[in-house]
Amino acid sequence: MTRSLLHEILDYANRADPYPLYEELRKTPVHHVDDGAYVVSTYYEIRSLLHDPRISSEARHLASTAHDPLAAAAQEEDGVLPPSFLRLDPPEHDRLRRMTNRPFGPPHSPHRVDGMREELHGIVSDLIDGIGDPGRIDLVDQFSYPFPVTVICRLLGVPREDEARFHSWADTIAASLDPDPDADPAERGKEAHEARMQLGMYLAGLIEQRRKNPRDDMLSALATAEGPDGAMATMELLSTAALLLIAGHETTVNLVTNGMLTLLRNPDVLRRLRADPRLAVPVVEELLRFEPPVQLLPQRTPLADIEVRGVTIPKGASLWLVLASGNRDPQRFENPDRFDPDRRDIQHLGFGSGIHSCFGAPLARLEAQLALSELARRLDNPRLLQDPPPYRQNAVLRGPRHLPIACDGIRP
């Protein structure tokens, strides 16, 4: 049963609504797949493990993934660049994250994200202005997808004339994260590798320019920083920039798209948001609980034997944490399957927790708040054309691949 349940969760047929499967999974908080992964699905256990220093994010500590039926889903990097800090443990993780955070957020750069508010609003407005036919809108292709990659370009300091190339590389790399049963895996792998190489070479050139002529952007700050940890090596900087692009793009696409889908399924909340854009803050927090853009964390392993709810998870085992299941755990949240932005206590796992909690959370929150409040305000009588919409293949980064909607018109 355990084995088939986990395969059902990864089965594309259940992508549109995996939540009944998560409910079944929670009946056994620590599932052991035959000869493979240990899967933890309850809120308090997941949160505890995310804060446990005995849990590693480095693939080299995995004893073996040979018998792990889920291992393939965890492969996101192809060796072009060194592992990003997402895939490292302390002290290397802490050093790189500290260095990346200096130009990104408090205490050293408290206004970096909030200072982009006006620019983000302009990007959102331009995308909505460019929608065209209100009778047939693909929210993903026309809005959710181009929005965050444009934001990442502006954050890093990619020149406007190069944004289209950057979009193209992001598209190819993002596509490679989704399994495609109809495509040649070798060809897709080659295309993704080539895109990563071109992106890496482009960023390397841009870093050199910024070292010589710094500007007021994050790449300049990272390239010229000389803080307590010294300067970032070029390969570390490339890896960090690629992480900001891929992680920052993919999760925000899903957050915005899942958000609009949820609002259209809850028209009373949509009406309230249209009347009061301040509601965007609690709406986004509840969305991060209700429909998190990252459903599973597959790349963890214990550095020693650990016991969770009476089950010993051995050193080196493949450990999966099902964040989306923890977010619907009735032991933690009352009426967990109800979307309720008035919920008083939303300490969700939508951005993870502990040392690997989502680095870009402040930016993702602001992007989603601005995007959803403006879509609610400007789309006149929006409605779904297909429910459920077609989903991406990826079980980890879960969200609609397309979201066909219509509206009566677009307000100024």
UniProtKB/TrEMBL annotation:
InterPro entries per the UniProt record, alphabetical: Cyt_P450 (IPR001128), Cyt_P450_B (IPR002397), Cyt_P450_CS (IPR017972), Cyt_P450_sf (IPR036396)
Name of the protein: Cytochrome P450
Keyword annotations of the record: Heme, Iron, Metal-binding, Monooxygenase, Oxidoreductase
GO molecular function: heme binding; iron ion binding; monooxygenase activity; oxidoreductase activity, acting on paired donors, with incorporation or reduction of molecular oxygen
Organism: Streptomyces spinoverrucosus
One Pfam entry name: p450
Record keyword Protein biosynthesis present: no
Domain of life: Bacteria
Family (UniProt): Belongs to the cytochrome P450 family.
